[in-house]
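Suppose you are handed only these lines of text.
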Amino acid sequence: MEITFYKYQGTGNDFVMIDDRQQLFDVTDLGLVSKLCDRKFGIGADGLILIRNHADYDFEMIYFNADGSQSMCGNGARCAVAFSAFLGIVEEKTDFLAIDGAHQATLKDGLVQLLMGEVAGIEEKAEDFFVNTGSPHHIRLVDRVKDYPVFAEGKSIRYDDMYAPSGTNVNFVEAISPDEIFVRTYERGVEDETLSCGTGVTAAALVYGKDQPATEIKINTLGGKLSVKFTSKPSGGFSDIWLIGPAEQVYSGKIKV
Ligand SMILES: N[C@@H](CCC[C@H](N)C(=O)O)C(=O)O
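From them, the structure of the protein bound to LBFN2T5F can be written out as follows.
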């Protein structure tokens, strides 16, 4: 059998995208997901996304990490919006469904603005923080993040007993100015540092932004620039959280499986 795929990237977080409106992809075949995401034996990607029809939404995004596990993916969702526009399913605005619920998004000139789910609050974890932005994120503020041992420290926190059994993603954040940060992320399910993580930078922006007057934080990642806008609630939670950044088709092809 051959599968037609499209490869997308959003600030270097890369995804195999499949138009699965015919529902031909076996979502229980996690070995196939891992194989397609394998950088040596498959196409190679941080994750795989299926676009399916949904009765109440423009489309449904089904996201898998490279190891076949599932969670919400912010950069993947931005790429799914761009891919759905490419397929002619949506134009400049969309309402779609993901694993964590309904999302709105707009697409203009290759830039996708994605409305994230509301965040109930930020948990303190000793000197660090934990936020769920659709996926779980541990946040640590550090100096000189470019020199930080992201893989070693990220892996150790990801597997710490406090997050067992499901684990967490881990973000290391350096303050650049009152409205700008640099974020590096160790991703659960990829089990490595990725060039950018959308739900991760969103969590980092909320943790950093809660102590700043700014309501929009500019984000630098190894894969490019994003920004996050939000409204703080008196309860300590956040609403109207927008993740903004580019999403691009890189190539398309067919793979024998
Ligand atoms: N890269 C994603 C996050 C994907 C999910 C994560 N690895 C998890 O399992 O929680 C993003 O852009 O948000």
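What can we learn from it? The chain has a mean pLDDT of 97. Residues 13, 65, 69, 71, 73-76, 135, 169, 187-190, 194, 197-200 surround LBFN2T5F (CB under 6 Å).
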